[in-house]
Amino acid sequence: MWTKDSKNDSGKPNLDAEQLSKLQDRNKLLDILENQGQQIVVVGDTSSGKSTTINFLLGYPFNFVAQGIGTRRPCVMTLTPDPEREKVLFRTKFQKNDYTKEEDFTSLADVANLVRNVNDPRAHPEWFDCLNLDRDAYRGQSMVRPDDAFDETPVYVQLLHKEIDCPMRLVDVPGLSRGNRLTTRIALSFIKPDNAVILVIGKDHPNNGGFPHLAAAMRECSRTIVVQNFANTKIQDNQVSENYSALYEKMSGRTDLVLYCIDYGLPYEPGLPLWQEGYDQQDWHKINKEQGLQSVRRAMVQHTEMRAKQLQERFKDSQVFSNVIVPGIDLAGASGRDDSGMT
Ligand SMILES: Nc1nc2c(ncn2[C@@H]2O[C@H](COP(=O)(O)OP(=O)(O)O)[C@@H](O)[C@H]2O)c(=O)[nH]1
Ligand SMILES: [Mg+2]
C-alpha cells in the first residue's frame, strides 16, 4: 500500500486459502480466479471524495460515480496486466438474483453507462433487494423508497492493458447517507480483517458524519489508512485535529493511526470559472487519450505530490501538522516510482 511504513510490502496477493474461501462465501461473485491480491475497500460519508481517491489510487480516471444517481451498490474495480493488450479493454460483470450479464467494452463511456444502469433503482427496482420485500433478508420490513434504495451486490469492472504493472483491486462502497442504515450495513460488511480499508473523511463534522462509526469497526483491521480530504478548509478551521481525536478515541487509541491530509482540488471541467491551472485537477481523460495510461498515472501521482506540497507550504506556520497528521498521501510508493524512471 502507500503509507511510509508499508513500502516494503511486496504488494503481492497475501490471501490464504481459508481467507479466499471466506471471501468467496461472503460474495460468490468475487473474481477469485484473478486473485489480484488483497482488495482495498474505500469507505466514508457521501461526497467525502471516495471516488476521487479511488481514481488517484488506481491512477486512472474511472470517475463514473460522481454523476447523477450515485453509488448505490459496491463497485469492484480491478487493474489487470495483460501483455497482449495494446488497447484498454474493460471487462464487466453484474449478477443479481436471476440476472447475469458479462460484457466487454473498449470505451469508458460505455462502462459508465452500465455502471449508471445498475445503480438506478427507479429503472431497475428488480436489482435492489430492499425494494423487493419478498426477499428473505427484507421480509416483514417496511417499504423503502427507490430514492433510499441501496444494494449489497457489487458490479465488477476490470481494466486490462499491457502497461499495467501492478494488479490492484479497489472497492467503491456506497457513501454513508444520514438516516439510512443500509449504507452503514453495506460499508461495515466490507470492513473485514482480510481487506485493506481506506476511510475517506470529507467535510462532515464527527458529530454529524458516520465516519467515527466506521473507524470503530476498523479497529479489527490491520491495514487501514485514514484520508482527510478537502484538507485546505478542514485544516483552516482546525477540524482536522478534532477529526483526529474522534478517530483516535473510536479506534481505542491505535498508535499507528495517521491522518493523511489531501485536497485534490476541483475536477477539470471546461469553462469552470474557479478552476486554476497548476492547482486544480487536469483533464485526465485528455491526457489518457493523447499520451496513454502511464502518462495519466504519472500526472496523477505528480498532482497529489504538488497538492501535498501546497498544503505544507500554506500551513507551514500553523501547528497542525505533527507526526500523526501529515500532508499528502504517497501514491508513488506502489508503482508510480517505477514509471517515472526514478528507480
Ligand atoms: N474542490 C475539491 N473538490 C473535490 C475534492 N475531492 C472531491 N471533490 C469533488 O467533490 C465531489 C464528491 O467527490 P466524490 O469523489 O464523488 O465523493 P464520493 O461521493 O465520496 O465518492 C465531486 O464532484 C468531486 O469532484 C477536493 O479535494 N477538492
Ligand atoms: Mg462516489
TrEMBL record:
SUPFAM superfamilies: P-loop containing nucleoside triphosphate hydrolases. Pfam families: Dynamin_N. Gene3D superfamilies: P-loop containing nucleotide triphosphate hydrolases (3.40.50.300). Residues 40-202 form the Dynamin N-terminal domain. This is Dynamin-like protein C. It comes from Durusdinium trenchii.
